[in-house]
Design a protein that fits this description.
Layout (H helix, E strand, L loop, with lengths): L2 H36 L3 H23 L2 H18 L9 H19 L37 H12 L3 H12 L4 H8 L3 H20 L10
Helix pairs in contact: 2-3, 2-4, 2-6, 3-4, 4-7, 6-8, 7-8
Length: 221
């Protein structure tokens, strides 16, 4: 084996080992969260709220299109986490489980208001129901945040709200929350092929609007 080949092998092996170590650390963290929720550890719940509050609120805002509803659901989701925490087994990421709970609660709310599925979230709504601003500052920039100013971020929010709910949801989970396609499929209870289709169609619909404000989407997969 040449020196260059040996170096390449060592570098490759080191990267694989590091990735495996990161995966194992994440697995242990998820298991620790699962154990804490089973114990109904109030301190752990406080930590989870602090860590995920901005992401959860952003997801609810984009899913409902209404700040008041999102704020009410935000409280209800954390109550559900506290009551049903024992159901989280730590085999998946906590945020995947959290977003699944949030999505189910949005659907439950809409069903009570006669909408039969997530597809119908905005069919009977109006633009007046939408919040004036979707700013949820958490200090961590996402791919959709990498624009020059507040006005451009408002334009991105407007472009997302112009999409139907199902395509918007997949874009938010992929580009804001940076979930994998497999994780999005778990949250939405959809086939992977369905998630890919919604993602590509959503990107095709929103790309022209984003390019007008100087933002290009990174690759979706």
């Amino acid at each position: 084996m040449t020196f260059a080949a040996a170096k390449s092998f060592l570098v490759s092996g080191g990267a694989s080992s590091m990735a495996a170590a990161v995966d194992e650390e994440a697995r242990q963290q998820n298991l620790a969260v699962a154990q804490g929720l089973k114990r109904q550890d109030a301190g752990l719940l406080d930590q989870l709220i602090v860590k995920y509050q901005h992401r959860l609120m952003r997801y609810l805002l984009y899913l409902t299109g209404n700040r008041e509803q999102a704020e009410d659901l935000f409280q209800d989701v954390w109550m559900r986490v506290m009551v049903r925490g024992g159901q989280f087994n730590g085999q998946a990421k906590f945020e995947t489980w959290l977003f699944t709970i949030a999505r189910n609660m949005v659907i439950d709310l809409r069903r009570k208001r006669t909408a039969s599925s997530l597809d119908e979230l905005f069919e009977s709504g109006s633009d007046d129901d939408r919040p004036m601003s979707f700013e949820v500052a958490d200090g961590e920039p996402t791919p959709f945040d990498c624009v020059s100013n507040f006005e451009d971020r408002e334009k991105i929010a407007t472009a997302l709200l112009d999409l139907d709910t199902l395509h918007r949801e997949v874009l938010v989970l992929r580009f804001y929350e940076e979930l994998s396609l497999e994780e999005i499929a778990k949250v939405t209870k959809s086939h992977l092929s369905t998630v890919k289709s919604r993602l590509y169609r959503g990107m095709a619909m929103i790309r022209p609007k984003l390019e007008r404000v100087g933002l290009r989407l990174r690759e979706a997969v």
